[in-house]
Amino acid sequence: MFLLDTSVLSALTNPNHTSHTNARAFRTQCATQERELYLCVISIAEMRFGLSMYEARMPRPSETVLNEIRERIHAAMTLSEPIEITRHVANEHGQLRSKWAWICSPQKAAQGKLKGNPPERWSDDWPASKLQITENDIWIAAIALTHDLTLVTCDKDFDNLAKADSQLKILRI
User: Fold this and answer.
1) What are the Cα distances from residue 24, in Å, to 10, 15, 38, 67, 104?
2) Helix, strand, coil percentages in the chain from 3-state DSSP, rounded to 5
């Protein structure tokens, strides 16, 4: 069973994407082997954000172009019912983010008290720029870990998280 990262969803639905052929071949292979593909609500949010930002551009893109993007988002969403964020995913997210923070900056992590904040506020002191990975990618990886899914991606963004948690299975296409 596989969780598709947003990069794979984009590649699957956009014939002009550089990984489109690989993504389609992967999907076909999964279909013939009756392997299930999943997406998550984070990927939907990322795609919707991109569309909303593009719609607000000046000059506004043509309706033809916007409709093509809307169709790609709809096609991605029809691949499966999206996996939601649950308290189990939230627990996994917190643990994974902590594991990566210890690898990324062990001296800062060992300080024990960050900027006078209590531990529940420490996440504010570990932004994506410090961790060198986006918060959304940590959430996507946490969903894959929680549901024991192999995370399929087109990029290297998840490699560091796989170093932080050996249970995270990554397949790059």
Assistant:
1) 11, 10, 15, 22, 35
2) 60, 10, 30
With a CB cutoff of 8 Å and minimum separation 6, the contacts of 147 are 1, 3, 38, 83
> What is the distance, to the nearest Å, from the Cα of residue 123 to the centroid of all Cα atoms in its chain?
19
Q: How much is the pTM?
A: 0.91
Give me the pLDDT at residue 71, please.
Answer: 97
For residue 113, give the DSSP letter: -
Q: Which residue has the higher pLDDT, 84 or 113?
A: 84
At 19-42, the pLDDT tens digits run 999 999 999 999 988 899 999 999
Q: What is the mean pLDDT of residues 54-73?
A: 96
Number of Cα atoms under 13 Å in the Cβ half of residue 23: 24
Cα separation, 98 vs 160, whole angstroms? 13
The secondary structure of 146-171 as a DSSP string is HTT-EEEESSSTTHHHHHH-TT-EEE
